Amino acid sequence: MWDSLFGIANVWAMACWAGLILLPRGPFVQSAIFYAGVGLLCLAYAVLLGLVMSGFVDAASVEGGEANFTTIEGVRGIFMSDGGVTVGWIHYLALDLFAGLWIAKDADQKGFSRVVQAPVLLLTFVAGPAGLLVWLAIREKRARKGARSKIGSKT
Q1: pTM of the predicted structure, to 2 decimals
Q2: Using an 8 Å Cβ cutoff, are 99 and 128 in contact?
C-alpha cells in the first residue's frame, strides 16, 4: 500500500511541476496547480498523518521510546516505517510545490523570463529550500525597485 501511495504522490507532483514550468500560467493553470496539486497533496498528507497518528495504520517506534518530534531518535523513528517515509515525503512534495507556485507567480509579476525561472523552479523541485533561497537572492533587486516605485507614485 505505502509503495503505491508513494508512487502516486510522486507522479502527481511531477505532473504539477511539469505544468508549472512548461504551461502558460493563466488563472486556470495556476488554480489547477494550487488546488489539484498543492491542495490534494495537503489533503493526502492530512489523511495519512491522521491514520498513522491514530494507530489505524502502522506507526513507527524506536528502541527504548516512541516516535516523536522532540529528539533526533524520535524523528528517526518516524521515518523507520514505510508509512512514516510516505507521509513525510508527501509533506515535502506539498510544501515544495507551494513554494514553486509562489516563486512562479512572483517571477511573473516581476517580469522575469521563463528562461530565468525554469532553473530556479527545477532546483526548488529537487531541493526546495535551496531553490527558494536562490529565488530570494535573484528577486531582491527588482523587489526593492518595485517597492521604491510604489512609494514614489503615492507621494
Answers
A1: 0.84
A2: yes
